[in-house]
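Hi R.,

Here's the chain you asked about this morning:
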Amino acid sequence: MTASSDTPLARLKDLGLTLPNAAAPVANYAPFVRAGALLFISGQLPLGVNGVDPAHRGKLGAGVSLEDGQSAARQAALNVLAQANVAVGDLSRLRAIRLGGYVNSAPDFAALPQVVNGASDLVAAVLGENGKHARFAVGVAQLPLDAAVEVEGIFEILA
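And here is the predicted structure, written out as tokens:
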């Protein structure tokens, strides 16, 4: 028998977090798609407590601090996990394959990996050994709703 802190939801609780409600798509796309044993989660914004507006808006390197960017990435990753939980019903059935982080950044902002670490660190903390993943972090000129960060994910659904 595993200890309760060995489950993803217990780890979330230990971090003082709960899964938010999965956000509804705002355009003509699916929030997630299953293809065989793979689960693709559409890009998620760092939506705040109202589930509509981003908790962090603006450009990294032009008004948004690195710490706020990391917080935005963490919130976006939490929203990725919320979508994944809706898709499979149990986060313990998932292994992270790849996270992608898009950072709304000024042209000279170079700390993109450090921003997306907010997402990677959360997924690793929640999924434990199954949270280790490949990743990309890119700077972009703009994101929907002027969000500071957007995170997408690919997961393997375990039997």
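One quick note: DSSP finds three helices and seven strands in the chain.

Cheers,
M.
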